[in-house]
What we know:
- The chain is α+β, with helices and mostly antiparallel strands.
- It contains three helices and six strands, in the order βββαββαβα.
- The protein has one domain (9-138): Alpha-Beta Plaits (2-Layer Sandwich).
- A four-stranded antiparallel sheet has the order 4-5-3-6, with helices on one face. A two-stranded antiparallel sheet has the order 1-2.
- A hairpin with a 4-residue loop joins strand 1 (9-10) and strand 2 (15-16).
- Helix 1 packs across helix 2 (78-96).
- It is elongated.
- The N and C termini lie far apart (37 Å).
Amino acid sequence: MKYDRTFVWKNSHAQHRLGYHLVFTPKYRKKVLRGKLNQRLCELFYEAAKANQWFIHELNIKYDHTHMMIQLPPDITVSKTVMYLKGGTSRAIRKEFPELREFLWGDSLWQDGYFIETVGRIDEKKMRQYIQEQWEQES
C-alpha cells in the first residue's frame, strides 16, 4: 500500500480516497483544550495517524472541540479509528495532566459521541449527474 500526502492511495488491487471530517468534544464540553494540553493532543493525534498509516490533512483543536480531516485506508472502520484516537489520547492526557481530574470526572477526556461526515472533491448533485450521464451514454 502506498501512503503519502496525495489524496488518492493505491494498493495492488485498488485506488481509494476515503476522507472524513471528524469532530469530538471533551466531557461536559469543558474548555480545557488549551496551552500545553492542546499542543500535546496535536502530537498524539499525528503519532496515532503515523503508527496506523492514516493521514491527517487538517487538524484544528479549539478550547472545547476538535476538528480533523483524516484519510483512512478501506480496511479500517471510522468507529475503530475514533476509538483509537479518543482512547489513546484520553489515557495519555489524563496521565500527563492530572489536574484535569478537577474538571473531568471518570476515566475519559472525551464525550461518548462524535460527528463524522465524508469528504469528497465533488458534491452529491454533481455525482448524481455524473452517474446519470454514464447511464445515458451506455443506453
